[in-house]
Write a structure and sequence with these properties.
mainly beta, Immunoglobulin-like, 4-stranded antiparallel beta sheet, 1 helix, about 10% helix, elongated
Length: about 130
C-alpha cells in the first residue's frame, strides 16, 4: 500500500505541469532621432564646448557618441540632451564627424524580457 502511494504521488508530481518558466524575448528599444546639432560646426583647435542635440525619443539615460566615443551626456528632456565635447575631439579639421544618441536597453525580469539598446541614425558635425 505504501509503495502504491509513493508511485501515485510520483506520477502526480511528474504530470502536474512543473517546468521551467517561459521566457520573454528582449523587445526592441525606443529608437531616438536627431533633428539638429547646436552648434552644427566648430573651428579646428577649439576649446571644450557643450553640444546640444535636439530630436525625439531621448531616454533619461541617453548617451551621445561623438565620432564613436561616448561623451559625458546630460538629459534635459525627451527632445534635448547635451554633451561635453573635449578639445581633443576637435583638434583637427573633419567635414563629417558622426554624432549619435543611444537609449540603453532595460534589463528583463525573472521571466526575461526587457528592451534592447537603440541608436539613432548619425548626423554629421563639421570641424572646419
Amino acid at each position: 500500500m505504501k509503495l502504491l502511494m509513493v508511485v501515485l504521488l510520483a506520477a502526480t508530481g511528474v504530470g502536474c505541469g512543473y517546468s521551467k518558466p517561459a521566457t520573454m524575448p528582449v523587445q526592441p528599444g525606443t529608437k531616438p532621432a536627431i533633428a539638429q546639432l547646436v552648434p552644427p560646426s566648430t573651428a579646428a583647435g577649439s576649446s571644450q564646448f557643450t553640444l546640444e542635440v535636439d530630436g525625439t525619443n531621448f531616454g533619461s539615460q541617453a548617451l551621445v557618441k561623438f565620432n564613436g566615443a561616448a561623451m559625458t551626456t546630460t538629459f534635459v528632456s525627451a527632445t534635448k540632451v547635451t554633451a561635453t565635447i573635449p578639445a581633443s575631439a576637435v583638434s583637427i579639421a573633419n567635414p563629417a564627424i558622426p554624432v549619435t544618441v543611444t537609449n540603453p536597453g532595460t534589463p528583463g525580469g525573472l521571466y526575461g524580457g526587457g528592451t534592447a539598446a537603440a541608436t539613432s541614425a548619425a548626423m554629421s558635425f563639421q570641424v572646419n
